[in-house]
Amino acid sequence: xxxxxxxxxxxxxxxxxxxxxxxxxxxxxxxxxxxxxxxxxxxxxxxxxxxxxxxxxxxxxxxxxxxxxxxxxxxxxxxxxxxxxxxxxxxxxxxxxxxxxxxxxxxxxxxxxxxxxxxxxxxxxxxxxxxxxxxxxxxxxxxxxxxxxxxxxxxxxxxxxxxxxxxxxxxxxxxxxxxxxxxxxxxxxxxxxxx
Length: 195
Fold this sequence. Notes:
One of its GO terms (biological process) is plant-type cell wall modification. There is one protein chain. The protein is mainly α. Helix content is 80%, strand content 0%. It has a single domain, classed as Invertase/pectin methylesterase inhibitor family protein (Butyryl-CoA Dehydrogenase, subunit A, domain 3, Up-down Bundle).
């Protein structure tokens, strides 16, 4: 039987631990995200982009992979919007306009693949055995293809003729997508291994 003195002490200990956890920002979900992000190519970006979704992710490798793909999709949509605006800019050279158009097409394809991957990942959650492997293989193939697309997007901006702020700006946008997609692929692969 717990003594009357022990009850307030236990209560104070629980309150202290809760306050310490809130003050330091440490919770099990954040620790899970941090340890999972330690395995990817861009860990700081991974933590930064996924930490706001800690409550949704909790300790679920499936939810972590799904959220990472959602971050990649959002970044791709943002870049697509940016390239659409940039393509209408009046000061572009014909070569820049052509390179932006090619890049826009590639980003659109990539967006489609990541979107399909997110839907397919939901099928993985309900599948078992060979069926899980089949769905997961689709996800991995599409995300990997999206990553390859993103990396080839800047090829049209090669050479000294294309040295400009436009090139720098587009490359920064594409690098951002490629990094979050690379992280998403790593987290998808981790989920596949843990299943």
